[in-house]
Amino acid sequence: MKRLTSVIATGLALGMAFGVQAATLEDVQARGSVSCGVSTGLAGFSQKDENGQWSGLDVDVCRAVAAAVFGDASKVQYKPLTAKERFTALQSGEIDILSRNTTWTHTRDTSLGLNFAGVNYYDGQGFMVSKNLGVTSALELDGAAVCIQAGTTTELNLADYFRANGITYKAVTFDTSDQTRAGFDSGRCDVLTSDQSQLYALRIGLQDPSGAMVLPEVISKEPLGPVVRQGDDAWFNIVKWSLAAMVEAEFLGIDSANADKAKSEGKPEQKRLMGVDTDSGEKMGISNDWAYNIVKQVGNYGESFERNVGSGSPLNIARGLNAQWNKGGIMYSNPVR
Amino acid sequence: MTEQTPVKSSPSFFNNPRNRSIIYQILLFVGLAYFFYGIVSNTMANLEARGIQSGYGFLSTTAGFDILMSLIDYDATHTYGKTFVVGLLNTLLVSAIGIVLSTLVGFIMGVAHFSHNLLIRKLATAYVETFRNIPLLLQVFFWYFAVLAALPSARQSLSIGEAIFLNVRGLYFPGLIGEPGSGLVYGAIAAAIAAIFFLKRWAKKRQDDTGQQFPVFLTSLGLLFGLPLLALIVAGFPFVWDFPALKGFNFRGGITVIPELMALTIALTVYTGAFIAEAVRAGIQAVPHGQTEAARSLGLKESKIMKLIIVPQAMRVIVPLLNSEYQSLVKNSTLATAIGYPDLFTVFVGTTLNQTGQAIEIVFMTMAVYFVINMTISFLMNRFNESVSLTER
After folding, report:
1. What was the ipTM of the complex prediction?
2. pTM surpassing 0.95?
3. A34 vs chain B: nearest CA distance in angstroms?
């Protein structure tokens, strides 16, 4: 009888727990850290060093949000996720932000209950082949075996591209980018396809990096950016504007070194971004010097880019599309005012 | 009002154990129903609140991704419903091969445990103790990343007679392509199998009636090869060999066994085989030694003792254990996802789920599939168990 009662009681309790979605910001503040979904390890974007410290372009978005919310960029809990796990982790509330080289597509934005908070890297899909194959163009890849990460837009673009050009391939799929690289290394496939940025990152890890080359074709647009759950606009705003503040800071010429100076004696728009005479933070439920904390602790977008994937890193990727809009790129922040 | 106290032979309504049990069961049922109603409506409300689409409509939309291996016609223009079928068939394939091979390995190793040859006996023990105690996932990785990935590249393939090739991309061997008239040969094979079935029944009846034995095995062998051969000659050999050949990057033509399938099959076979060997050993040990001695005293040959006395009695112990080993094998085949063999779990719960985001529907469908497969195995094995169980007269 006792057991029966407890079964029924549990049933009632669960039945009545009709979902009340608490505000993410409150949850984050109560927890004392931002829970951020990152990749399982991708050089330049999110990687863990031997001391267990995460770094990378995607990691900097997590750190920027922590700096905005807590004034402390280190208050982040990182959750490494595979491509297949990432959306479920975000939907189920296991993470607050997904910052994991994720392409902004229509399906994901409209049917998964997710919102993309902006773009922190404009990418495109490419191919890496072994030099001794003697291939110079992706169009010569008829019949090739292609290593690819499962559950990505890359997988869909690949099918489209080969079909459009009337050539065939064998898709060999893996769960993580490390496994994909191992498959390419062992000769399981002739070609590795992924976003161009990832190809450069994966090439560094090959047994013989100089033996592989990236083909010139870029077959898709891959705008990568952080994602949050749909239905919590307050949190969406914080993530969206944290990223925008990094881009805007670079545009206004503020970096981690001169942030203090910009705050005290900068031009009006610099001072305003740094939280002087503004209630920009209050409107989001955080402190007014949120952007100052981001720039001071994480740096502006340009600094983050150079440090993680640009000339200051082994990847040495050119700014290209990711330069500011007035410097030949398309990185453009809406005004923070 | 004076209360009447009739002399009752049975307890009052609520003290009647029968009534009580019915009431409790109704209460439990209502509680459970409410519990599941709560889960479902809670989920629906949350999905709606978060703007996540639900329903099975996605099954008829175009998948847009390719699958490494499919037993039916499939390409990226087909639907998500088709990816489900492709994954399901690949799961059934690896499970079926695994069940057949692991039974073979398990029986050989289980019987080897009783060999009079010390080396064979020790080998069987070492096999069981080694592979039973290493996690299956590690074994899958071992075969895939350590053994098969170390094979040479396509251009330096190991080959037998320029017809069978083995390299890091898989095993390639010639396939037979049927031309018009090949239907006759397939018919002959079916006829041979049917004939063997009836032959066995006839021979058994004859032995029961007259005591005379009939060479069933040799006759069956003759039928199995003779009839199709006859059909081949009559139809004028309506088959052509399709040899694999290196064209461009890879081998084309013939039949390809991808390394993912090989690795998974070997791992499942070796692992489950070790457990089946133990079941077989337990089954044989459960037959009292007196049975063997009695059989020997009748003058039966050792091979006949095994076949007619020991194995039929051992099967009573072995079959229930086999049942659960087969079911474990099917469930363990989901480790395919670790090496990218396109089984139901990899294709449907992996890629399709990720492309559509329909987590609940897809996980539910997949759970239902494994449930049905295992219930079917259980049903068949229980029927088999009844046929080998002790018939009391």
Report:
1. 0.75
2. no
3. 20
